[in-house]
Design a protein that fits this description.
Elements: H1 2-25, E1 35-42, E2 58-66, E3 73-75, E4 82-85, E5 89-93, E6 99-102, E7 108-109, E8 115-116, E9 122-126, E10 142-143, E11 158-164, E12 190-197, E13 203-212, E14 219-226, E15 229-230, E16 239-243, E17 262-264, E18 281-283, E19 295-301, E20 309-314, E21 319-324, E22 329-335, E23 337-339, E24 347-350, E25 353-355, E26 364-366, E27 375-378, E28 380-382, H2 388-420
Parallel strand pairs: 11-18
Antiparallel strand pairs: 1-2, 3-28, 4-27, 5-6, 5-9, 5-23, 6-25, 7-8, 9-10, 9-22, 11-19, 12-13, 13-14, 14-15, 14-16, 17-18, 20-21, 21-22, 23-26, 24-25
Helix pairs in contact: 1-2
């Protein structure tokens, strides 16, 4: 009986050594979660047994449970390296539709633009409803794919021009001639310039000249040129009239300025092959005429050319933004995260990944930072949660257990030999 009990002890100690050895071997594996061997005693009881006389029948392995404690986080230079700080798993899917879950967030881009892990399984995201990244369809997931270009260019349709026109400026001595470009020196007070875009994404220089009018000290004329041609205001005049009150603020609804401080320009075609730009507006609502020097506080426009992908960013909520060379950014999706009622019931699938099982329950998909799910750190990786010092202690303990059970077998064998040798 002692021999059989000791054999069960050897088997248990051997399993403990295997589990500890596997933990130590994966101490540097990204996203690895350590395991723990668990045991229970064995008793063979009968109705006639008295508890005080039952010696026990040994030990058995009840299971090897995974410990999903948080691993330390190391920072990297790759924005597609993702670390989870808190509960949850990244969701990946193979090309044949098999879904798995992992804490190893070392992702890269394959030749088709898909974001994949080292097994070529694709990272799953919630698709965006709008490119600004404020709303996502959390009812479904899709493969994260990085576009090569940002899409079609956008023609300029709105310009914001926030300037201060010096109230003390004199009236120019030379009349402004909108048919001449560049304008004659001394025919204007100040000028600004910016780049606008046509429907083909081609860039054009837009120049604006500000002229103080002699008839009214609080009135200025703004002349607009695209490349070398004057762009008239909507009423056909070559300039837009800007009128200010005695406080130096723009008078909305006066001159060419509408009630919202906008000036609408006539339609024009900036280049051969490009579509005409119609209804382009200038926002002068915050323009002023104070007794200070000329200043340009804001000069922006909403057009853009096509651009190629220049980088990818992932925020703490898992929103993936693509950055393009034209200065624009676009939300590609929100990283889908999974959590389980019983994560220890997950079945290990190798390659630092798990698949759901009956014991774990179905995966519950959610967003980073929501209830029961951690946040995402981009440019970082979660290390293994193995504590080497503790594992070495476990290793020594398992070794001593093995040696002690081996000694029981040796002793039992010696007793057996003694019994055999009785005459």
């Amino acid at each position: 009986m002692a021999f059989r009990i000791a054999l069960s002890g050897l088997d248990a100690a051997s399993t403990d050594l295997e589990v500890t050895g596997n933990n130590i071997a994966n101490a540097s594996t990204v996203g690895f979660k350590e395991s723990r061997a668990e045991f229970a005693d064995i008793y063979a009881n009968s109705l006639s047994d008295v508890s005080s006389t039952v010696s026990g029948s040994g030990v058995r392995v009840t299971g090897v449970s995974q410990q999903f404690g948080q691993g330390s986080i190391d920072f990297t230079a790759n924005n597609l390296d993702l670390a989870l700080n808190g509960e949850g798993f990244f969701v990946t899917q193979s090309e044949n539709g098999d879904r798995s879950f992992t804490r190893a967030g070392s992702f890269s881009v394959d030749r088709d633009g898909y974001v994949v892990n080292h097994t070529q399984s694709r990272l799953q995201v919630f698709p965006p409803v709008d490119p600004a990244g404020t709303l996502f369809n959390t009812g479904t997931t899709t493969d994260l794919n990085l576009p090569v270009v940002s899409g079609d260019p956008g023609a300029t349709s709105a310009v914001i021009s926030t300037v201060n026109l010096d109230a003390a400026e004199p009236v120019p001595g030379t009349p402004f001639n909108a048919a001449v470009f560049p304008p004659l020196a001394g025919s204007y007070n100040h000028s600004t310039a910016t780049t606008i875009y046509d429907s083909l994404g081609a860039s054009h220089t837009m120049s604006m000249y500000y002229v103080k009018e002699a008839a009214n000290p609080n009135q200025w004329s703004a002349y607009t040129f695209v490349d070398n041609a004057n762009v008239p205001a909507l009423d056909g005049s070559p300039e837009a009239d800007l009128r200010f009150d005695t406080s130096g603020l723009l008078i909305s609804g006066a001159g060419d300025v509408d009630a919202t401080g906008q000036v609408t320009m006539s339609a024009f075609t900036p280049a051969v092959g490009a579509a005409p730009i119609t209804g382009m507006t200038f926002d002068y609502s915050n323009a002023t005429q104070f007794g200070a020097g000329f200043a340009v506080n804001e000069l922006t426009q909403n057009g853009f050319t096509s651009g190629t992908l220049s980088g990818v960013d992932v925020d703490a909520n898992g929103v993936v933004f693509a950055r393009f060379t034209n200065g624009r950014s676009e939300a590609l999706g929100k990283v889908a995260l999974a959590h389980f009622n019983n994560e220890q019931g997950l079945r290990q699938a190798g390659d630092t990944s798990w698949v759901e099982s009956f014991a774990s329950g179905d995966a519950q998909l959610g967003e980073a930072g929501s209830a029961g799910i951690g946040v995402i750190q981009s440019g970082a990786l979660e290390n293994s949660n193995v504590d080497i010092a503790q594992q070495l202690v476990n290793l020594i303990t398992a070794q001593r257990n093995f040696q002690a059970n081996a000694q029981v077998i040796t002793t039992a064998d010696a007793i057996t030999q003694t019994v055999i040798n009785i005459r």
